[in-house]
Design brief:
- The chain is of the alpha/beta class and about 280 residues long.
- It has helices at about 1-15, 70-80, 95-105, 115-120, 170-175, 185-195, 205-215, 240-260, 260-270, and strands spanning about 25-30, 45, 50-55, 85-90, 110-115, 125, 130-140, 160, 180-185, 200-205, 220-225, 230-240.
- The protein has two domains: about 1-130 and about 230-270, D-Maltodextrin-Binding Protein, domain 2; about 135-230, Periplasmic binding protein-like II (D-Maltodextrin-Binding Protein, domain 2, 3-Layer(aba) Sandwich).
- The chain is about 35% helix and about 25% strand.
- The strands form two sheets. Strands 3, 4, 5, 6, 7, 8, 9, 10, 11 and 12 form a ten-stranded mixed β-sheet that branches. A two-stranded antiparallel ribbon has the order 1-2.
- Helix 1 packs across helix 8 and helix 2 (about 70-80) packs across helix 8.
- The chain starts with a helix and ends in a 6-residue tail after the last helix.
């Protein structure tokens, strides 16, 4: 029955992508003589969709001087929501606040969180991930050898981690034995690394490269190898009933774009690693 229900959900959501759907609050249930269809999430009506996140390189970036935001997430959500009669509105906030806007309202879609058991208690995640990141350490130039894959060797070092970021199971299991300083953003962490207040910073490579270049630290900061995790990013939605409708719509659209090859083309244009 679970397999049948999932199949029915996918077919219903695919239909929703080509029909008018709903705004942020009101929803209209599907109707059918079949009892199974009565369990399908309500179909969203056309209207404004609030999409929130923080700046993620290549995925979700604000346009210059008020221009439209850009990145793979924008490309995907435009291709899914606009044909279904919705008007996406992209908004940028500090990462913890953006997450709160999904957990407690009033936004409908959160861009880019990694999936964790803790977060799954607070929000729904798209079935399909739309990007994959390498989680890595950065050190000062000529100190890359501080990391060679052994967390036990880091116990006497000062390590920076960004507030609200997820670093994967290996890092979290080792965190209690490490000296971890939580900082508000990646730029702050990089400056602290530069002046010797940190020995290493934990970050994802995709987000870090443009910030390092923007701060002019390309000759002072170096990537350590190997990566300590590979994490996949999703779209997320409220755990309220309306969130299930948005999840179904976005998942159906992602499935359609992947099947047509458009998803792969979009990811290649943006230089984003697409999960299998």
């Amino acid at each position: 029955m679970d397999a049948l229900r999932r199949q029915l959900l996918r077919h219903a959501a695919l239909g929703a992508a080509t029909l008018a759907g709903c705004g942020a609050v009101r929803a209209e249930p599907l109707t059918s003589g079949s009892p199974a269809f009565n369990a399908v999430p309500a179909r969203p009506r056309s209207g404004l969709v609030r999409i929130v996140g923080t700046t993620f390189a290549r995925l979700f970036e604000p346009g210059a001087d008020g221009a439209k935001p850009f990145g793979l997430a924008v490309d995907l959500l435009d291709a899914i929501l606009i044909p279904a009669g919705h008007t996406p509105r992209y908004e940028f906030y500090p990462w913890l606040r953006a997450q709160s806007m999904i957990e407690h309202g009033p936004a409908q879609v959160l861009v880019g969180p990694y999936r964790t058991p803790e977060r799954e208690r607070l929000m729904r995640f798209s079935r399909q991930a739309f990007y994959e990141d390498a989680l890595v350490f950065y050190a000062r130039r000529r100190e890359e050898g501080l990391w060679w894959g052994d967390f036990q060797a880091l116990q006497r070092l000062s390590i920076g981690a960004v507030q609200g970021w997820v670093y994967g199971e290996r890092f979290e299991q080792s965190r209690a034995a490490l000296s971890v300083t939580v900082v508000r953003d990646l730029a702050t962490a990089l400056r602290m690394l530069q002046v010797g207040r940190l020995d290493l910073i934990a970050a994802n490579q995709r987000n870090s490269e443009p910030v390092i270049q923007e701060l002019g630290l390309g000759e002072q900061v170096a990537l350590c190898a190997p990566p300590f995790a590979q994490l996949k990013g999703h779209f997320a939605f409220s755990r309220e009933p309306a969130g299930e409708s948005w999840l179904a719509l976005v998942d159906a659209g992602m499935q359609r774009l992947r099947a047509s090859g458009e998803l792969q083309q979009m990811a290649a244009r943006r230089g984003v690693a697409l999960p299998e």
